[in-house]
């Protein structure tokens, strides 16, 4: 009986696919290529979700619920198709369709180009939230930018990072819906007369056009929800092109606004201070807020309930201008009184901080803001003025304290201060991180507004990282504890009862081996390496699934200490050469370096040199291999993480705000080699010491102590530990390099890390 229903549904889907191939692409089934088939398949599948999508929107409208809006300059949703099929519990039907139509499911899935609209953790977290909000049927929406080019594609030419444009919009995207009716105009620059603030002239108008993406929640026993991710672009609005500038020979100025959403800024942790970035941030903020207000006005004739109906979370300070822009929209365009408006603002906004690195804290030149956003600048001045006034009324606040807390200081606007002042909550992304915010980074704010600070530890979506990425382990877990954990991950605790059972341990290890084999197969089939001219060559494996797979995949950054991993590999290399018997180890490295981050690029090159040196040594390569994977992204993560035995989470304690890769590995059964940092600490607490055997390194306080009294002396360490010294020496004695360019890079790493 059930089989018949399946068959019927699959047959219907087949018909739809054929229909789309013919009517939208002019192709018959037999001649359609894989990409065309992929697209037709998505068109057919998305029909199945439209009703739920619309119904959800209608229900929230009818019930007039409070909405949550997540504003973020970055989203990293990963591929849509595979995750959606899994969430819809449609895997079996889809496999049947593929069989009926003679297509390879894996190949079809791999035709989807991943939307890389983020740098790393912060963007992936944003997408994870949308997945959860959708699964939990909560009335929420994400707002971001539809970059024409997402994070660059990384190629490694003999270990040198070469950045190529990310062409995710190469083909028509079946997951986006252009919403012409919702286009919005955003204003930059302009002059207003002080007598008549309503008369604003000579401003520059930019049109933002939204595209909607369905974020499909998990379908448990009941029905499923679809949440909207709305991304703005300026590219597709013909009105953004300035013909007069073009005729005057200034193509750059003529096309500046059509190009505004062209590229994602690829440097995490580095404030760029660039004008186009500021315009991008404001575009997101203004277009989204106007959209939010429009939606509110459909149901209300005044703003009395606005603060009750709207909540806006800002993902780091990147959208913090929303505080000024909403204040402007309320007071200047909707007749709300200043004080009332300000009350509302603080109820509406919440601010998440993701980093303590000083160079990543956004500050804008006052003249730049005043020129591009004169109205908002004046509002920031007033907010600051009122804020400082209220501080002066407090006891024990001197002018030095005022200076430290001020939003505007020394010709700069501090976005984090604006965000804190305008929000009811400021959250760090793990316990330790929040403590550091309270005691160091935002100490003065904590002194005066302790109630604002809260720790909300990050999470990841077990649906993408376990349910979808590891169906084998999913099945095993579900056999033991049923399916509740797919929606509520706290239920995973029930697995405790099985942890010590030898049969369970064996079953688990069998699954791990299977995932390792799949991954190794993927490496052999797709894992190329490039020579100095960028030509690809097949990768050879010297180890098999008996080797420990030891993985560090994340953005390249000094604080994440990929260099420490490299030095450890060199030590293992030496030991093997000296005849020590070690378990074979396959070390996987992956991650992008910001294009301007020279040190990170040198460390990438070092890994290439180490990999090559190991490969050349027959004795070493029978026990050790290092593979540097190009272009680490969400899709690659889905393949690597389930296969990992060891998860490298070795940041300098106090620096990694939370980390989220750590959680993805742990839920796939890898052991964490980790420092006492970010969410590692809380993970260790809940998993307990017994199952967390590989903890190491200084704690955050010990590091602060060392920094304070200058007691970190690498030379002393080297003279006390000959094995470390021997490994470090390889950096400069020429045994890893083949040319002077490489040796110069390694020398710089050597001297910058040993001479202090
Ligand atoms: C800032 C100004 C101008 C241009 C770019 C930026 C910029 C962009 C991205 C600054 C920082 C980022 C990204 C930060 C990030 O990903 N942080 C990570 O956030 C994760 C989610 O909370 C945490 O788990 C990580 O610990 C944290 O490093």
In short:
The protein has 31 helices and 22 strands.
Question: Care to describe what's here?
Answer:
- It is a single chain.
- 43% of the residues are buried.
- A hairpin with a 5-residue loop joins strand 16 and strand 17.
- Helix 11 (322-333) crosses helix 14 and helix 13 packs across helix 14.
- The protein has 31 helices and 22 strands.
- The chain has 756 residues and is of the alpha/beta class.
- 47% of the residues lie in helices and 15% in strands.
- It is globular.
- Strands 1, 2, 5, 6, 7, 8, 9, 10, 14 and 15 form a 10-stranded mixed sheet that branches. Strands 20-19-18-21-22 form a 5-stranded parallel sheet, sandwiched between helices. The protein has a 3-stranded antiparallel sheet with strand order 11-13-12.
- Residues 119-122, 125, 265, 267-269, 271-272, 277, 354-355, 360, 362, 429, 458, 656-660, 678 line the site of ligand 26Q.
């Amino acid at each position: 009986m059930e089989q018949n229903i399946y068959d019927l549904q699959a047959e219907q889907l087949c018909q739809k696919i054929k229909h789309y191939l013919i009517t939208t692409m002019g192709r018959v089934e037999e001649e359609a290529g894989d990409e065309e088939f992929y697209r037709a398949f998505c068109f057919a599948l998305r029909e199945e979700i439209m009703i739920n999508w619309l119904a959800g929107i209608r229900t929230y409208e009818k019930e007039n619920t409070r909405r949550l809006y997540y504003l973020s300059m970055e989203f990293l949703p990963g591929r849509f198709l595979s995750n959606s099929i899994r969430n819809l519990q449609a895997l079996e039907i889809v496999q049947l369709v593929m069989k009926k139509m003679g297509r390879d499911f894996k190949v079809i899935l791999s035709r989807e180009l991943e939307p890389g609209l983020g740098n790393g953790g912060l963007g992936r977290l944003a997408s994870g939230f949308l997945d959860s909000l959708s699964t939990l049927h909560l009335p929420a929406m994400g707002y971001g930018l539809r970059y024409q080019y997402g994070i660059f594609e990384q190629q490694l030419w003999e270990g040198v990072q070469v950045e190529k444009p990310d062409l995710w919009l190469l083909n028509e995207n079946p997951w986006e819906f252009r919403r012409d009716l919702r286009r919005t105009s955003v204003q930059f620059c302009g002059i207003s007369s002080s007598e008549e603030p309503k008369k604003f002239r000579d401003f520059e108008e930019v049109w933002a056009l939204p595209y909607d993406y369905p974020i499909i929640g998990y379908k448990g026993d009941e029905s499923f929800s679809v949440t909207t991710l709305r991304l703005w672009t300026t590219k597709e609005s013909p009105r953004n092109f300035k013909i007069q500038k073009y005729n005057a020979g200034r193509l750059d100025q003529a096309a500046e606004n059509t190009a505004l959403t062209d590229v994602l800024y690829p440097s995490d942790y580095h404030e760029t201070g660039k004008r186009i970035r500021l315009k991008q941030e404001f575009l997101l903020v203004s277009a989204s807020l106007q959209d939010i207000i429009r939606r509110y006005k459909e149901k209300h004739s005044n703003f009395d309930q606005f603060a009750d109906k709207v909540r806006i979370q800002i993902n780091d300070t990147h959208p913090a201008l929303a505080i000024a822009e909403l204040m402007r929209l309320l007071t200047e365009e909707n007749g709300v009184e200043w004080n009332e408006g300000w009350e509302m603002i603080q109820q509406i906004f919440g601010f998440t901080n993701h980093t303590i690195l000083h160079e990543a804290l956004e500050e804008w030149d006052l003249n730049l803001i005043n020129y591009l956003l004169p109205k908002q600048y004046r509002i920031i001045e007033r907010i600051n003025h009122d804020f400082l006034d209220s501080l002066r009324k407090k006891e024990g606040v001197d002018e030095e304290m005022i200076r430290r807390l001020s939003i505007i200081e020394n010709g700069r606007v501090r976005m984090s201060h604006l965000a804190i002042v305008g929000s009811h909550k400021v959250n760090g992304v793990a316990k330790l991180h929040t403590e550091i915010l309270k005691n160091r980074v935002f100490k003065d704010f904590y002194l005066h507004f302790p109630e604002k600070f809260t720790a909300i530890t990050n999470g990841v979506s077990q649906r993408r990282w376990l349910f979808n990425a590891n169906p084998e382990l999913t099945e095993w877990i579900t056999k033991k504890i049923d399916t509740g954990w797919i929606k509520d991950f706290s239920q995973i605790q029930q697995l405790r009862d099985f942890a010590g059972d030898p049969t369970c341990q064996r079953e688990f290890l069998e699954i791990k081996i299977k995932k390792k084999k799949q991954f190794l197969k993927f490496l052999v089939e797709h894992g190329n390496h490039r020579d100095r001219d960028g030509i690809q060559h097949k990768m050879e494996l010297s180890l098999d699934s008996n080797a420990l797979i030891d993985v560090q995949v994340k953005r390249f950054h000094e604080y994440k200490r990929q260099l420490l991993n490299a030095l450890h590999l060199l030590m293992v290399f030496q030991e093997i050469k000296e005849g020590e018997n070690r378990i074979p180890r396959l070390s996987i490295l992956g991650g992008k370096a910001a294009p301007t981050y020279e040190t990170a690029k040198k460390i990438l090159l070092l890994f290439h040199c180490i990999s090559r040196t190991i490969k050349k040594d027959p004795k070493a390569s029978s026990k050790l291999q290092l593979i540097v994977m190009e272009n680490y992204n969400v899709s690659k993560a889905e393949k690597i993480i389930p296969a990992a035995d060891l998860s490298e989470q070795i940041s300098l304690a106090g620096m990694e705000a939370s980390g989220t890769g750590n959680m993805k590995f742990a839920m796939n059964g890898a052991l964490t080699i980790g420092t006492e940092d970010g969410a590692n600490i809380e993970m260790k607490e809940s998993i307990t010491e017994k199952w967390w055997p590989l903890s190491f390194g200084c704690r955050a306080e010990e590091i602060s102590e060392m920094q304070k009294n200058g007691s970190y002396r690498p030379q002393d360490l080297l003279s006390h530990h000959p094995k470390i010294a021997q490994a470090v020496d390889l950096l400069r004695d020429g045994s890893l390099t083949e040319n002077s360019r490489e040796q110069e890079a390694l020398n710089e790493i050597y001297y910058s890390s040993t001479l202090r």
